[in-house]
Design a protein that fits this description.
The structure is a homotrimer. Chain A contains 6 helices and 40 strands. By secondary structure, the first copy, chain A, is of the alpha/beta class. Chain A folds into 3 domains: 90 residues, MurE/MurF, N-terminal domain (Udp-n-acetylmuramoylalanyl-d-glutamate--2,6- Diaminopimelate Ligase, Chain: A, domain 1, 3-Layer(aba) Sandwich), CATH 3.40.1390.10; 206 residues, Hexapeptide repeat proteins (UDP N-Acetylglucosamine Acyltransferase, domain 1); 33 residues. In chain A, a hairpin with a 2-residue loop joins strand 21 and strand 22. The radius of gyration of chain A is 27 Å and the shape is flat. Chain A starts with a strand and ends with a helix. Chains in contact: A-B, A-C, B-C.
Chain lengths: 349, 349, 349
Amino acid sequence: MSQGKRASEIAGYLQGRLVGDGSILIERIADLENAGPGSVAYVDNVKFFEVATASQATCLLVPIEALETVEFNSAAVIGLKHPKLGFARIAEVLHPPIVREPIIHDTAVIAETADIALSAYIGPHATVGEYARIGNNCRIEAGVVLGANVTIGDDCVLHPNVVLYDGISIGSRVILHAGVCIGADGFGYVRDDMGYHKFPQIGTVEIDDDVEIGAHTCIDRAALGKTRIGRGTKLDNMVHVGHNCDIGERVVIAAQTGISGSVVIEDDAVIGGQVGFGDHTRVQKGAIIGSKAGILPGKIVRPGVWWGIPVQPLDEYKRMNAHLGRLPQMREDLKELKARVKELEDKLR
Amino acid sequence: MSQGKRASEIAGYLQGRLVGDGSILIERIADLENAGPGSVAYVDNVKFFEVATASQATCLLVPIEALETVEFNSAAVIGLKHPKLGFARIAEVLHPPIVREPIIHDTAVIAETADIALSAYIGPHATVGEYARIGNNCRIEAGVVLGANVTIGDDCVLHPNVVLYDGISIGSRVILHAGVCIGADGFGYVRDDMGYHKFPQIGTVEIDDDVEIGAHTCIDRAALGKTRIGRGTKLDNMVHVGHNCDIGERVVIAAQTGISGSVVIEDDAVIGGQVGFGDHTRVQKGAIIGSKAGILPGKIVRPGVWWGIPVQPLDEYKRMNAHLGRLPQMREDLKELKARVKELEDKLR
Amino acid sequence: MSQGKRASEIAGYLQGRLVGDGSILIERIADLENAGPGSVAYVDNVKFFEVATASQATCLLVPIEALETVEFNSAAVIGLKHPKLGFARIAEVLHPPIVREPIIHDTAVIAETADIALSAYIGPHATVGEYARIGNNCRIEAGVVLGANVTIGDDCVLHPNVVLYDGISIGSRVILHAGVCIGADGFGYVRDDMGYHKFPQIGTVEIDDDVEIGAHTCIDRAALGKTRIGRGTKLDNMVHVGHNCDIGERVVIAAQTGISGSVVIEDDAVIGGQVGFGDHTRVQKGAIIGSKAGILPGKIVRPGVWWGIPVQPLDEYKRMNAHLGRLPQMREDLKELKARVKELEDKLR
């Protein structure tokens, strides 16, 4: 943990407007309710202004326009355009990631031909294969297994028990949480009378810079060619990415979503949890897909908000649900109408 | 394995009523069909009484009232209020869990500041971080990685390759199956024009006593504060628990269910498999949620049985399904009615 | 990698009809678009014949009948009944799996009573328990943990960090991808006033020959008896198989599907991804179940194609969807009919 920052330093770093005591020392972040002396909290929603005024936080990050209109009680109040972003940025300063000594642990097994930066840390029981390359300041934690010809850029963190199969390539500033598995064979077989033959899975996986991947997520190698995860993309826990997928930049995918082979997800898409993609689907730039949606093979998902199984525009989904909700009334109407028609028929008989 | 128990000892231990030979030795448990000499089986359902009378089990646990009415053929028959519970309890006696020698394996890497009970077992290639504390009689199996400041109570079993990140705290009698991952960063980001900034994930996870967690389940640390799993709660394989969730006592959650951030599940809830929870939902005490259900963000799930996507009371779900089933008939009715109205109109023209 | 094969050798091995230069050397496989000199590609669909004629592949595997009708431009063209199967088979020859030196790595921990074939490879930080048996030519990669009394046949590959609990048995030519977990306790409890008691989980798991299991898939041991995966069956990543399941031969199960306890899946079934099975369901030989389907407990799924939650024959599912699509029109019709009946009533008043 750092030694803390003065409120004036925080205001300067975030380019915010400081009201109150700039000399006061801030040592940690906190939420509004649990904040105590020496902590900084944020509020970015009018709903929580009351909670914010009662907060014990020494320093408060608030929307710039609230500085004029609200009386906060913290010793230092900093007005910002985007207080939550400011909070995230100052958290990085007050709570910097762990730095390990640049050592290779005695128990790690390193191939002679591996090329490891002097500033990298390799933890206990890690295994590094032939011709693997590990960049500057990387933290390779306990039990990680790196295959032959793996390439890892600078400033990456691989948490315990991550497995990278042979030939996988990772950019810089990538975070892989515990148990992530990259490069296992894709799920492809050819059937004959006897059973299934393995379709070759000899491609690779490329992970670009600034990607973060949640615990136990599995990304399969391409059959031929490569599976790709673009720059700045974030995957949650236990996501499945099949062979030959191409996932763009700044895509967000929540937990337990499953992506079949050869799916393309373009930049800036947002995908909920437990979504399922049939193979060869394409999600266009900026599309948003709700949790638990199902996308049929080959489907193109255009920009907009999508929902349901099979996936449809959220508006249509809601309209259909409204129709469904009126079904009981429709049955009543139908019954009544039948009786009235019967009566008319009787009159005219 | 134990040396076995006499039928009279079993009856005494379970406080049941013994009929038959109390001196006979019972060495293992079995199901009705595969039971042989020396085994104990149970029956708790009238449907299976015929199978039970034909069973080769030496000892049979039966509902107390069946002692009077059914002629079982086993050498020893024990009447109990709850035969299945009795079976589970006697299984613990006849098949006690493995006990390891209290050693720290040569290949384990233990931080100097770690505090490990003399009665604990630490397996091959385990890694124990700075200031970690491990209680009495714990079994830490091969490849487990415990971060700094991890606390583990007494009598816990951590199966191979479990990962606990720094600062995680576990109660007593907790069982973590292979590959469980506790304390990875929650999935939270703040977006700006450039992409996603990591929202701080500096909270922790607390697991209470008597919790059992299935293989590869992942429980994320809180952003701020803590993620909690209450006493006696049981999670199946590959469950995802997001940051800041609060899961109560004696909750049961089946495999592959995904729980987004800040969800509250109160005591004694029962959750099926592959259920998905939006963030900030609350499940009230004793609610039962069927498999594959989907709960929208912020929803409160009251006591009762719930089903579907989005989740609704099971009764309503069934009623709606009945309406749906009558849709084809409704279309027929509508068509017929149109014809009749047409005919009436023609008559009156 | 092999030294390559001449086109005539490939034609002979696949028993195909060669047109063109049989002496030309083929060193690797490729897809049509990315193929270059020295590579073999395949085409098995008229749709791609144009791409195939433009391909730079030196050798092309094509449908036997296309030899007569299409002018391919590759130096060697081989006509086959099943070009994709031929491609898979020649890939095995051109890209044989890695062979490791038959050594036990210094850092592996092997129980004295374990019986390991001289031709097997045991990687860094692997752990092999008491009385475990490992067959010929097996590759046990880094960080694998094998419990006591585990049995593994010949020619198996266990990728890094696989965990087999005590007593699990694996056939020959089995591939387990990274992080596979076999033999964790099934999810079974008996409830009383105090909470949940563990139902005994003392059975085992048997995996037959030629099974391949994807990364992080978990297969639980039986409560009593055994959980079984039949010969030639293929499981994708993160599949959950509950206790006492019996899965037949040549079954294919896609990623993230969850199978509750005591489910029977007969031979040659095909199951999509993210499917959920209630306990005690039975899938009959040759049934096909679409992705994301949900099967209620105890259901019998007959041969044919099934879809939806709860699962129904695909035809019925489509018919119901068509009815749903006409709901808006039905409401219109109903409204119009009401007006007309009203008019008739007014006339007759």
